[in-house]
Amino acid sequence: MHIDPECPVDLHTHTTASDGSLSPEDLVDLARKGGLCAIAVTDHDTTDGVIRAIEAGQRAGVMVIPAVEISSQHKPGSMHILGYFIDTGEPRLQNTLAEMVRNRDRRNLGIVERLNNLGVQITLEEVCGYAGGDVLGRPHFARALVEKGVVSTIQEAFDQYLDAGAAAGVPKEKLPPELVIDMIHGAGGLAVLAHPYQLRLGDGEELESRVRRLCDQGLDGIECYYPEHSEAQTAIYRSLAARYGLVSTGGTDFHGSSKNQSRLGLQLPLQASCVLELATRRARGKPPRF
Ligand code: AMP
Ligand code: ZN
Ligand code: FE
Ligand code: FE
Hints:
Blueprint (H helix, E strand, L loop, with lengths): L8 E5 L10 H10 L4 E4 L8 H11 L2 E10 L6 E6 L6 H27 L6 H5 L9 H10 L6 H9 L14 H10 L3 E4 L11 H12 L4 E5 L5 H14 L2 E4 L22 H12 L6
Parallel strand pairs: 1-2, 2-3, 5-6, 6-7
Antiparallel strand pairs: 3-4, 4-5
Bound molecules: adenosine monophosphate (AMP), zinc ion (ZN) and fe (iii) ion (2 copies).
């Protein structure tokens, strides 16, 4: 598919296959209406929405990049790694994703138990009613808590019950970043550090040394453009990208109504040239570091 290098793109979106509110088809339709020429479908722990999105994209003239978002071990904040241009049929990737979904299922039982102990009458079946696929996450719990009238907003559900350290917060088992990066590479993909501000390492030396270590482990890119990043942060992440030979990417982390906001592609200064850079890097392998 030919794409204009200056056309806007959004490389971080979620569908009903994980915790987004739009089906893959509706997401692609929204992208087309918004004038985007490419999106990456980056559902948490699953590629189940990718094929449907690609097929819808072929009909709509929107390029859909097969992708995934995986949480990784990190303290004090959280580390999410995006895998772009992955082969969704690669067995090791799919086996590991299936194991992650089983870990989620165990955690979800823990959340239900904690909520019940707090006097909130809720069942796993009720929460499953809000999920469109096999990946059940905290946003589905948040929605159930709002619909039951336990809290009045999604944010309140996270603050009072679901955040790490909140009353019913149960941690998810995660893989170390080197294994996540290796798994993405094994599936022919590129590994990109998502929303670096969520690492909670600041924007100075601590962040840089963490990024350097990730580069040594094979990191390919860094998500510089993200709605929560200030202009100063974007500039810092872009200079890290330049210094370490990483591709600068970006996306809105679109979840539809699941995250109380709707902003697919909105106000991102991100163009399709970034997709071409990713594709080139994938074709040529990693550039040398100086
Ligand atoms: P999980 O993967 O089940 O731990 O859920 C993580 C997802 O929950 C994130 O990717 C966000 O989509 C969402 N999330 C996390 N914190 C919040 C919050 N404070 N408000 C709304 N959504 C949140
Ligand atoms: Zn999410
Ligand atoms: Fe994320
Ligand atoms: Fe995300």
